Amino acid sequence: LKPHGQDSSKEQVVIAPFFETDAKLLGHLQDQTSTTDLLKTIFTLRTADGEKKYPLDTIRPKLFSQFMEMAGELDEDGWFQDVPFSLCHLDLEPRNILIDATHDKQRPIITGILDWDSAVLAPSFMSCKPPQWIWDWQDDEDEDEQTANDVPPTKECIKLKIAFEMAAGWDYMLYAYSPVYRLARRLVRFAIDGIRSAEDIDEAEKILEEWNQTRSSS
After folding, report:
1. Is pLDDT of 1 > 90?
2. Cβ–Cβ contacts within 10 Å for residue 158, how many?
3. Segment 104-124, tens digit of pLDDT
4. Is there a contact between 73 and 105 (Cβ–Cβ < 8 Å)?
5. Which is nearest to 165 in space by CA: 149, 186, 184?
6. Quick one: residue 52, left, alpha or beta (phi over 0 = left, psi -120 to 50 = alpha)?
7. Domain Aminoglycoside phosphotransferase spans what residues (predicted)?
8. Distance CA 129, CA 134 (A)
9. How many domains are contained in the chain?
10. Domain annotation covers residue 8
11. Same domain, 33 and 78
12. Residue 207's pLDDT band (cuts 50, 70, 90)
């Protein structure tokens, strides 16, 4: 990140795998042209990698298989149709946004974005996690996307939410507030991060259960 006022637009952008194991996956992903194919390939590779490292583990392979089925159903139902890929930050929280509070009020005050080490090229709905901290700040940053479209607690917060939505547009709002795209975001995060803990297993099971309920009721 260049100091404020210095042009960094001509700097070379280097895209590389963050973990060594990711490099082994890259060769298998070059020809994937759809969100569904990409997700299924990643979950297949994660299953194969897990079987080598943890041959007695039966939980993760089962969940990855169910994730692949979920990806296929999302595609079949049209949720992945016409969804472009874009650069997604994945950790666009207040702690990573630099501002100049004394800046000219007629111009944007954001001067920089930090922590790009988690950025990926991903379906655009991954960039549309609703920024609840704008209109419903929680000191512990413990936000629940399921309540993102609830009416904010104060008139000022309502105005902030409306102002953001007018600037973001209808496409963003669809990706941000739809329960299906909320679940799709979690699905893609499991493709990116894998299943690393008992808490991840619990969350994966809850996501799959909610998806089945959502699909059966539609």
Report:
1. no
2. 13
3. 777 778 889 999 998 999 999
4. no
5. 149
6. alpha
7. 76-123
8. 12
9. 3
10. no
11. yes
12. very high
